[in-house]
Design brief:
single chain; mainly alpha; TerB-like; 8 helices; globular
Length: about 150
């Protein structure tokens, strides 16, 4: 494989993907979700790049995702094969929501894409809502910490 830092991926997701194709599909799905409002904002793309960097993605993989044209791509064609409702499926939703919020707006098109992804990934509506709430709480906590202690 070698397209990412294995220890960073295992630490976050619990195990390594089964193939390079699964890695690419995961990242493509994120890009499709964040572009579901009609555009991938520069802040969102920067957040996606930051996530790829954090996981040690290769330069080739980053370039492939940057160049991936989401126009006309259906979410169900790029979602990786994940255990229905499993940890990585839930993380995909969390990652998508976090990245979608990077431009300051969690747009309705992005929310709709997250709902669709949750359905396709076997994540219950209750769990999806809990993940959205968790992301909101983490965001609020980060801003409160900055307000109290500065950067």
């Amino acid at each position: 494989m070698g397209k990412y830092q294995e220890s960073a991926v295992v630490q976050r997701y619990g195990k390594t993907p089964s193939s390079d194709e699964e890695i690419a599909k995961y990242l493509q799905a994120l890009k499709v979700i964040i572009g579901a409002d009609g555009e991938v904002a520069e802040e969102e793309m920067n957040a996606l790049r930051k996530g790829m960097k954090r996981l040690g993605a290769s330069e080739d993989l980053v370039k492939m995702i940057e160049g991936f044209n989401i126009s006309g791509v259906k979410l169900e064609t790029v979602l990786p094969s994940l255990t229905p409702g499993g940890k990585r499926a839930r993380y995909l939703l969390k990652d998508a929501i976090e990245i979608a919020r990077a431009d300051g707006t969690y747009a309705q098109g992005e929310k709709d894409a997250v709902v669709k992804a949750a359905d396709l990934l076997g994540v219950s509506q209750e769990t999806r809502k809990a993940i959205e709430s968790l992301v909101e709480l983490e965001h609020a906590s980060k801003h409160l910490r900055k307000a109290i202690f500065g950067k």
